[in-house]
Each structure stands twice: as structure tokens, then as C-alpha cells.
Specification:
The protein has 19 helices and 6 strands. The protein has 730 residues and is mainly alpha-helical. The chain starts with a helix and ends with a helix.
């Protein structure tokens, strides 16, 4: 009875209700472990609309091409229609506070310059549109990664919309460009005609430049003469400056004399006023003298004495009048040298005053002379006054006439003296102003001398420049010849340009843009996702990993509750011992695999390429894990279980069930090829998603080899132990 020990093992399990219940529970460990994970993460993206995400719109809008642009509002409107997340639209302060309080997984902020930056594409320094994405990674890291992928899609959508706006504007510019090219074509035609005229003008320019070259030589010769003359001007300016210095000194002396003359003229005017007052009084006394002639007879003696004194005063007055006349003549002589310096109107006024003064002084001298003569006659005839009253009366009448003339001349002399004093005052003031201007003239002469020196230097440089001008004129003549030739080519080129612009305008006007054109410009490349062996959801993608993990854990837990080393009865040999233990584990592993397959296929709805092959591969995977763990626990007991846990940990990281192998540390990649879960994951992927059954069978055979190797190892161990323990007892 080859299966004797196997029956004993099952009989012992059935009899031990506690063990039986434990083993039955263990049979569901793989599906509880793997099925729960697959169920929980079967398709998490299908529930993103339950993930709360805050949206803060700070955009203030902008104006683009005369139209209002509010990308922030448009984005908010689109997000309200989308079901990517549970979008909650809040104010900035509230959004960040609740994000910190873990009420939101992430926050999307639309800055205030969002629309404004969209209008800067054509600017010298265009600005990108910042869309601020703030995940709370401490709340849930994977949600942050999911949100980042969603932001990429939002960015692509916004980029398309903005590019459509720019494309529409660009095509409008193309239409305007067409009109501009037509205008440019017409202008190019006119430019061609102008170039033709320019060509003619350049020939004329060439002739004129030849004349210029000839005249520049003459100009150079003239500049040599000008250089000599400028040196003479500099020398003359220096002499002028020296002469003005001497003249300024003479002017100072003349001004001092004028001040003295001003003082004398004031004194003269004062004296003339007093003399005129006396004459006026004398004139008023003559009528009384005539009326009192009769009384004079009695006072002849007294009159004789008085007339003698009067004669002496009259003679003195005659001498003073003569001196006044002589002084007036001398003043006129002195003023003749000064008068040309005065303004013409002042000269005329001064001359009139001098003439009046001369006439008055002459009349004064004549009158005082007559007065002296009369006084003498009166003095000599005083004794015979009474006898010659008729003659005295006649003489008194003559005296009255002379006194009237004298009074008139005195008044005129007083007026002239006052005018002379006023004129002299103005003359002194003019001399002061003249002195100031003379000083400025002297300073100007100094600057003139300096400028003349600089002029001489500049003329020398100009002379050198005229030489260079002559050389340049020759070169200009040569250049003008080349310009004439170039203008001829420009004429031909402009004619060709006009033709090409007309063709370009025709082609540009043929562009007919619409919404489809704008859309194509905004999204010229459309990624067509043609998936190879499409995986519909996370559950399908992770099924190979979690199924392998569940079956391995189920095998490991079974060794905890089932006595994997001690036989239910005395084994005949090591083979029956091994078969009894492995048989129980194999049947348990078979049941675990079938239960797991039923749940993932029937309950979770896992779609596979072949159900029979999927079930078959699940069974070989379970048996391979059972064989491995049986070997470790049988050989080492609890340390063996610890080794199995270490293998499980290594398999979690190196089996490439989650992240690609190339993304894990290189030091861990070396364990990949030596662990059985590597091949179970590959085989499950082939039978579930790719349908590459040859690849599945390849991994199936590797797992079968794992199973056989560890089964043989366990068999060898049981044979060795059986010989030591039971052979001696027999």
C-alpha cells in the first residue's frame, strides 16, 4: 500500500478538528492575501472623482489682439466638466489651509498673470504660463503622483487651446501679409523705376565728382593762402589787445578830468543864479531911480560917493564877465575833443548850451562895460547933477534899457549854466559806462587774440584736410563709377523682386484657414496609442505579482499549522514518508490555486488569454512554492521558515512584478534570475495579458525544475532520517 502513510496523514488531520479547521483556513490564505489587494486596487483611476482636489483661480485676465482673454475662467469651466478628480473651487487662503489640514490631497493654483503671460509670445522676452501644482505628499504619496499625471494632461489641453489662439492670430497676419506683399510688389516696381533714374543720377554724380576732384585741388591751394592770413590775423589781434590796454589808461585820466569839470560847472551854475538875482533886483530899482531924479538933486553929493563905489564894482564885474566869456570859449575848446564820444543828441544839447553861454557872457561883458562908463559919468557929473537932470534922466532911461537886457542875459546865462551842469553830469555817467565797455572790449581783444591763435591752428588742420579731400575726391570719383554700375544691377534686381512679391502675395492670399486649420496648428502631432497586449486596469497588471505572492504566503503559513516533519505513523521508508507529507501539501497547494483562480476569474472578473493554461500555471506555481518551503522547513525547521521569509522579501523587490527590474538597485538585480517568483510572474503575465504561450511554457518548465529539485532534496533528507531513526528500531 504505497499510499498508506498519505491516508494516515489525512486521517490524522480529519480526526484533529482544530488542525483541520486551521488547514481549511490556510487554504484561503492565498486568495485572502492576493484577492484583497487585487480587489482594493483593481482600478483606482476609476474612483478619482472621489479624490478631493482644491482649485484656486487668481487669474485677472488680459487683452490680446483687442479681445478679452480669461484663460483662468476657461480652465475652471473645463475642470468643472471633467471628472478627473473631485474638484473643489475655493479661495486661496482657504485652499492652502485645508490642504495643510489634509482635507485636500492636492491644490491647483492659477496665478494672477496666467492670461497676461499668454499674450507675450510675440514679445522680446515671452513668459511661460505658470500653473502651480501643490500636492500634500505627506498625506498620500501616490495621490501626488497621480495628480502630477493629471496636471500633464491639463497642461497639454491648455497648450493646445493657447496655440489655437496664436494660430488664428498668425493666419490673420498671413492675410495682412498678403496685402502687404501686394503693396510691396507695387512699391518694388516703383523702386525699380527709381533705380533706373538713380542709375542716370549716378552717372551725373560721377561727372560732378570729377569736377569736385578738380576744384578740391584749387581749394587746397586757397587753404594754403588762408593759413598764412590766419597767422597775420593772430599777430594783429595781439597788437589790438596791447593798444586797447593803453587806450583804457587814457580813458581813466579823461574820466577824472570830467569829474572835476562837473564840480566846476555846478559851482558856476550856483554863482550865476546869485548874480541873476542881483540883476533882477537892480532892474526893479531903476524905475524908482528915475522917479526920484528930483530927489537925487538934493543927494547928489551922496550919490557921487556911491557912484564912485558903483564904478569900482562895475569895473570888477566887467573883468569877471570877460573872464566868464574867456572861460566859456576855453570850455568850448576843451569839449570839442570830448563831444565826438557823446551821443549825437547830447552833442547837440551841449553845443546849444555853449552857444547860449558865450552869447550871454559877451552881452554881460558889454553891459557891465556900459555900466562902468555910466557910473564914471555919474561920478564926474554928480556935482553938476542938479544942472543936468535932463541928461541924467536920459542916462537913467538908457540904464533901465541896459539893465533889462542885462537881466534877460543873466536869466539866459543862468539857464545855460544849469543845462551845462546837467549835461556835464550825464557826460560823467556816459564816461563811466564807456569805461566799462572799454574794459569789456579789452577782454574781448584778449579772447580774440587767443581765438586767432586757435584759428591759425585750425586753418593748418583744414589745410591738411583739404589735401586729404583732394585724395578722397579722386576715390569718390572711382566709387561713383562703381555706384553707377551697381545701380544698374539694382534696377534689374528690383524688377525681379516686384515679380516675386506678386507671386508671394498670390500664394499667401490662397491660404484659407478655419477651425480645423487652427486645431492642426495647435496639435500637429497626435499620439496614437496602439497598445501591444493591452492591460485594462491596475488589477490585471498586478495580478501576476499578487497571485504569486499569495500562493507563496499560503505555502509558508501551511507549514506553521501542519506538522511538516513528524509522520502520522511509522513510515516504511523515506519515500513513503516524503510522499505522505508532500501529498498533503500538494493537495493543499492545488486547492489554494483553484480557489484563487475561481475568485479572480469569477468574482473580480480577471480576463486571461486561456483559462485552462491559467489554472494549470497557477497549480505548478503553487506546487513549486510548496516544494521549496517544505524543503527549507523540513531541513532547518524554524530557521528554515526564516530563510523562506528572507526569500519572500527578496522576491518582493527583484521579481519585477511592480517596477521594472532596471529601476531597482543594480546589486539587487543579481538575485532576479535565482528566485522562483521571477518565473511565476513572467508566466502569469504571458497567460493573462500577452498570450505568448511559448513563453509561458518556458517559465512553466523552470518552475517544474524548481519543484523537482526541492522535492528530491526533501526526499533525500527523509531517507537519511529514516535510516537513522527507524532502521535501528526495526
Amino acid at each position: 500500500m504505497k499510499n498508506f502513510l498519505l491516508k494516515k496523514e489525512f486521517s490524522a488531520i480529519i480526526k484533529n478538528k482544530k488542525l483541520l479547521i486551521s488547514i481549511i483556513a490556510v487554504l484561503f490564505i492565498p486568495i485572502i492575501y492576493s484577492g484583497m489587494f487585487l480587489w482594493a486596487f483593481w482600478d483606482p483611476y476609476a474612483h478619482l472623482d472621489n479624490l478631493p482636489v482644491a482649485v484656486v483661480n487668481e487669474d485677472k485676465g488680459a487683452t490680446f489682439e483687442g479681445e478679452e482673454l480669461n484663460l483662468g475662467d476657461e480652465l475652471v469651466s473645463k475642470l468643472k466638466d471633467k471628472k478627473d478628480f473631485k474638484f473643489i473651487f475655493v479661495e486661496k487662503e482657504e485652499g492652502y489651509k485645508k490642504l495643510e489640514d489634509q482635507e485636500y490631497y492636492m491644490l491647483v493654483e492659477i496665478p494672477e498673470d496666467f492670461s497676461k503671460n499668454a499674450t507675450t509670445l510675440m514679445d522680446e522676452n515671452p513668459k511661460k504660463l505658470d500653473l502651480i501644482y501643490v500636492p500634500n505628499e505627506s498625506y498620500n504619496f501616490l495621490s501626488a503622483q497621480i495628480g502630477e499625471n493629471a496636471m500633464v494632461r491639463i497642461k497639454a489641453s491648455l497648450s493646445k487651446e493657447i496655440t489655437e489662439t496664436y494660430a488664428e492670430t498668425m493666419f490673420d497676419k498671413v492675410a495682412k501679409l498678403s496685402d502687404g506683399m501686394k503693396t510691396a510688389s507695387d512699391g518694388a516696381g516703383k523702386l525699380s523705376e527709381g533705380a533706373k533714374e538713380l542709375s542716370k543720377g549716378s552717372e551725373t554724380l560721377h561727372k560732378n565728382l570729377a569736377t569736385l576732384a578738380e576744384k578740391s585741388i584749387q581749394f587746397h591751394n586757397g587753404m594754403n593762402e588762408a593759413s598764412k592770413g590766419s597767422k597775420e590775423v593772430a599777430d594783429g589781434a595781439a597788437s589790438l589787445s596791447s593798444g586797447l590796454s593803453q587806450l583804457l589808461e587814457g580813458h581813466q585820466k579823461l574820466q577824472n578830468a570830467a569829474n572835476e569839470l562837473k564840480t566846476g560847472s555846478v559851482s558856476l551854475a550856483s554863482g550865476m543864479s546869485q548874480a541873476n538875482a542881483g540883476i533882477q533886483k537892480a532892474e526893479q530899482s531903476i524905475p524908482q531911480l528915475i522917479s526920484g531924479t528930483e530927489k537925487l538933486q538934493t543927494g547928489a553929493q551922496t550919490l557921487s560917493s556911491s557912484l564912485q563905489q558903483w564904478q569900482i564894482g562895475a569895473e570888477s564885474a566887467v573883468q569877471g564877465a570877460k573872464k566868464l566869456n574867456e572861460g566859456t570859449v576855453l570850455l568850448e575848446s576843451n569839449l570839442k575833443n570830448i563831444m565826438p564820444m557823446l551821443p549825437p543828441e547830447k552833442q547837440q544839447e551841449l553845443q546849444v548850451a555853449l552857444n547860449s553861454l558865450k552869447q550871454g557872457s559877451a552881452e554881460l561883458a558889454n553891459g557891465t562895460g556900459q555900466l562902468a562908463n555910466s557910473a564914471g559919468q555919474l561920478s564926474t557929473g554928480a556935482n553938476t547933477l542938479s544942472q543936468q537932470l535932463g541928461a541924467l534922466k536920459q542916462g537913467q532911461e538908457q540904464l533901465q534899457t541896459g539893465m533889462s537886457q542885462l537881466a534877460k542875459a543873466g536869466s539866459e546865462l543862468e539857464t545855460g549854466a544849469n543845462q551845462m551842469a546837467a549835461g556835464q553830469k550825464e557826460f560823467v555817467s556816459g564816461m563811466s559806462t564807456f569805461g566799462q565797455k572799454f574794459a569789456e572790449a579789452k577782454d574781448g581783444s584778449v579772447r580774440l587774440a587767443q581765438g586767432a591763435t586757435k584759428l591759425a591752428g585750425g586753418v593748418n588742420q583744414l589745410t591738411d584736410g583739404s589735401s586729404q579731400l583732394a585724395d578722397g575726391s579722386d576715390k569718390l570719383e572711382e566709387g561713383a563709377q562703381k555706384i553707377a554700375e551697381g545701380n544698374s544691377k539694382v534696377h534689374k534686381g528690383n524688377r525681379e523682386l516686384a515679380e516675386k512679391l506678386a507671386d508671394g502675395a498670390k500664394k499667401a492670399s490662397s491660404v484659407d484657414a478655419d477651425e480645423k486649420t487652427y486645431n492642426m496648428m495647435a496639435e500637429p502631432v497626435k499620439v496614437k496609442n496602439e497598445k501591444l497586449n493591452e492591460v485594462p486596469n491596475y488589477g490585471t497588471g498586478f495580478a501576476p505579482y499578487f497571485l504569486s505572492l499569495g500562493l507563496f504566503v499560503g505555502a509558508l503559513v501551511l507549514t506553521v499549522i501542519y506538522p511538516i516533519r513528524e509522520p502520522a505513523a511509522v513510515p516504511r521508508n523515506g519515500f513513503s514518508w516524503f510522499f505522505g507529507k508532500f501529498g498533503v501539501m500538494a493537495i493543499a497547494g492545488l486547492i489554494q490555486a483553484i480557489i484563487s483562480d475561481i475568485v479572480v476569474l469569477g468574482v473580480l472578473g480577471l480576463e486571461v488569454k486561456s483559462v485552462p493554461l491559467f489554472v494549470l500555471f497557477s497549480i505548478i506555481t503553487s506546487l513549486a512554492f510548496m516544494a521549496l518551503i517544505q524543503f527549507l522547513v523540513t531541513m532547518f525547521d524554524n530557521p528554515g521558515r526564516f530563510i523562506a521569509i528572507l526569500i519572500l522579501i527578496f522576491q518582493l523587490t527583484t521579481s519585477a512584478g511592480t517596477f521594472p527590474l532596471e529601476l531597482i538597485p543594480e546589486s539587487l538585480q543579481h538575485f532576479h534570475a535565482f528566485l522562483p517568483m521571477t518565473y511565476s510572474v513572467k508566466g502569469f503575465k504571458a497567460v493573462i495579458s500577452s498570450g505568448n504561450f511559448s513563453f509561458m511554457w518556458e517559465n512553466f518548465m523552470i518552475l517544474l525544475i524548481y519543484a523537482l529539485v526541492f522535492m528530491v532534496g526533501t526526499l533525500i533528507y527523509f531517507n537519511a532520517v529514516h535510516k537513522r531513526r527507524f532502521s535501528a528500531a526495526e
